[in-house]
Design goal:
This protein is an alpha+beta fold and 89 residues long. The protein has helices at 53-68, 74-85, and strands at 5-9, 13-18, 25-32, 42-48. It is globular and about 35 Å long.
């Protein structure tokens, strides 16, 4: 069994993470309901599926902030990071 796509939702936004069989990249689409001034409503990352752990964690921090509307603690970010790890090769 393999997870190809997952949607995560927080109080201020949501994210869709996809990595289908045969793809060499992970696609991450994020939409936030009330972005801070100067930040886009929609943001997309396209990263190699063999992304380095530190780089994936940095994306998890951004995703967490966009979904929850606040900068979270390490524990908050870890939940998003674990979900992103499902798609790593």
């Amino acid at each position: 069994m393999r997870t190809n796509r997952i949607e995560l939702e927080g109080s201020h936004g949501r994210v869709v993470i996809e990595h289908k069989r045969g793809w060499t990249a992970i696609r991450i689409d994020s939409i936030t309901t009330n972005p801070p001034k100067g930040e886009q409503i929609w943001e997309t990352w396209l990263v190699e599926s063999n992304i380095v752990t530190d780089d994936l964690y940095a994306i998890a921090k951004q995703v967490q902030r966009r979904c929850d509307g606040v900068v979270g603690t390490n524990g908050d970010v870890d939940g998003y990071y674990r979900e992103l790890q499902r798609f790593q090769d």
